[in-house]
Design brief:
Blueprint: E1 8-19, E2 22-33, E3 37-41, H1 48-56, E4 63-68, E5 79-82, H2 93-101, H3 108-121, H4 137-149, E6 155-159, H5 167-182, E7 186-190, H6 194-200, E8 203-208, E9 211-217, H7 218-223, H8 228-234
Parallel strand pairs: 3-7, 3-8, 5-6, 6-7
Antiparallel strand pairs: 1-2, 1-4, 8-9
Length: about 240
Amino acid sequence: MLAPETTALASFQNVSYASAGDRLLSDVEFTISGRGITTIMGPNGAGKSTLLRLLAGLLSPTSGAITWHRPAGASRIESAFVFQRPVILRRTVSANIRHAISPLRLPDTQASNRVHAALLVCSLEHLRDAPARRLSGGEQQRLAMARALARQPDVLLLDEPTASLDPAATNAIEKIALACADKGTKVILVTHDAGQARRLSNDVIFLNAGRAVEHSPATSFFNEPDSQSARDYLAGRITITDT
């Protein structure tokens, strides 16, 4: 299955993944383009978070291969991962961001500039010296986004980043994701929220029972999904494995 854009970023070639004897992904094949927001959807247990962790390199395929297609002149593709529940360090907001980029060993001025830019993008400048663990849930998730963005990744991987947030906090995270995509960062989002996927997605990968059932432009997926399982999912019905 090919992404709507023609420039490939990453390809899954017959990728399977098993853990403790359970097969979580089976013979997954698709190609993700290097632009916009790709959303991964599917019922609980479909393999969405597993797939995202494979993309991040946090897991390795049991079989098959994941190929990253580097742009001309690039030595590698950098990614950053934002979890549903971020781990916040016991230090200030700005110090949390500086810690995230410390492995890059940047000169102090450059590091300070990155911290400042990330604070601005995530609307946290007024909280830069606040104790990070005293932030609200939405502010902590914006801090997690700021830590990721300070690394200036080519790919931003988001695993249900708004699942436990109120509407205002969700809106703030969505605006950051859209701004990143507009500036050329590839965003790959796992969400169970069909409304969010409609608002953000350029294309959708739909997983069911560990298989990539379809991959299509968002408009096509939401208006005319190809599979019965996707139609059931979008209609709020129990999703049955396609045969």
